Amino acid sequence: MEAASSWLLLSVAWLASLAFLSRIFIHRRCKQLKSPSGPKPWPIIGNLNLIGSLPHRSLHKLSQRYGPLMQLKFGSYPVLVASSAEMAKEFLKTHDQIFATRPPHAAGKYISYNYSDVLWAPYGPHWRQSRKIYLNELFSPKRLQFFEYIRVEEMHAFISRLYGLSGKPIVLKEHLLCLALSIICRMTFGKKHFCVSGDDRLGSNSVPSLQELQEILNEFFFLNGVFNIGDWIPWLDFVDLQGYVKRMKALKKKLDRFHDHVFDEHKRKMKELGKDFVAQDMVDLLLQLADDPESDPDVKLTYDALRGLTLDLISGGTDSAAVTVEWIISELIKQPQLIRKATEELDRVIGRERWVEEKDIPQLPYIDAIMKETMRKHPVAPLLAPHMAMEDCNVAGFDIRKGTRVFVSTWSIGRDPSLWEQPDEFRPERFLGRNIDVKGQSFELLPFGAGRRMCPAYNLGLKMIQLSTAKLLQAFNWKLPDNTKLEDLSMEEAPGITTPRKFPLVALIEPRLPLHLYKI
Ligand code: HEM
User: Fold this and answer.
1) What distance lies between CA 48 and its chain's CA centroid?
2) Which residues belong to the annotated binding site for heme?
3) Can you give the three-state secondary structure of 150-177, one letter per residue?
4) What is the pLDDT of residues 163-204, one digit of tens each?
5) Which residues contact 517 (CB under 8 A, 6 or more apart)?
6) Whose CA is nearest to atom 31 of ligand 1?
7) What value of ipTM does the predicted structure carry?
8) Which of 49, 154, 446, 520 shows the smallest number of beta carbons within 10 Å?
9) Which residues form a coiled coil (predicted)?
């Protein structure tokens, strides 16, 4: 009965959304955007996810038809989709400061500690201070180097685990998620396993194991990406038709217990060691910064801020790196000649007697080209995270009203035929000898965004993707299971705010290096 009524509600929601979509005003070339008639109050909780629920190819087709800046109008405020490199530059560079805030939405409110993280935080003192902490403390080159031993150990354990599965079909994404989560947890909390919680799973006295943490994060990603009607029609937020807000509140309770455990444990250690205490992980660093008597009292790191930032850390890095590497192997497996080229490079530069290391990466231009080509064709954030105008402004001749949501479609930019020859094809060679970077300077390739809200951890993300790709190619020969033909391998993306494969990649591996190298 409950299931039937949820389906009914979902169907009504979809019908309503279709009805709204049919009323979309798409302003050809946006010349017809009206001048602002004074800022209107915008709803406390606004829609983010309707656009994300459109298949990216459909959005791309609309943008090819209606131009590089489309206005989609639903509800009480306009939504813009920027789908050319020039338009991306307008919003993320020329007018970056005006668009440096995020729109409010239910997930930010209920599961990101009322916007106490960085991802959903509004532009302001908390965001500025936290971002400074990320850039200067947690993700500085020195700090990332300090944590290199963790990446080395976890990558090696990952390759050894896979080696044990040689000859059997593996679901690669599961292993990649486990790798990313282990690295991030060790960097953030100093360990990857919490006490095994036994029967009382997430009961009041227990804290999650790695597997349960993964389940919590899955729920977190799901709820961040759902089409919550209350975000769209604010007064319905109180009714919570789909039950998402209820789920968000339940998730918050689990997150609270988890954070309390982590912070109590770290504080106990700090107290025990007294003057001998040296920060070992990111939570240690955050607690030290929160206790710093010299910090600005106006932007003191509150307990909620500590929880919000920790959440950024564990959620930001897990799915994104795993999604990208799964696409890399999927694209390569379809074109075995590309795998041959990559392994030739690895054999030439590294040889077959030792493992590739982070310091080798600059000597591997073909691996770099494979990564960039994957980020072009399958950007993890196909619409970046939403930006919002903080004031009325004029961008490239178009009047834009305060409160307007702006999505930058990196998916469309990556398929723009004026930038990329045969954009639907996977051809790493297009990047060889070209000076296109992924660090927010080349507006034709923006996997991490650009400007003030660009991913603050892009250097960690790059290291994780480059090294795991190089290791997977160095370690194994790859093929599809015997019952799957190359041409049958689906390359469909799941629609949503990220672009994972619709169907997980299942592959067969066999070792290609001397066997003693795989031992732990
Ligand atoms: C493959 C790896 C990654 C990719 C592709 C990626 C991509 C992105 C993108 C596209 C944005 C939004 C940029 C914008 O709105 O203009 C972003 C923001 C962010 N990312 Fe990442 N990211 C990755 C790894 C990470 C990691 C490892 C962390 C943390 C451990 C992280 C934490 C964040 C945070 C906190 C923000 C919000 C920044 C702000 O709003 O000021 N990301 N990321």
Assistant:
1) 16
2) 455
3) HHHHHHHHHHHHHHCCCCCCEEHHHHHH
4) 999 999 999 999 999 999 999 999 998 876 654 344 334 444
5) 353, 354, 355
6) 316
7) 0.96
8) 520
9) none
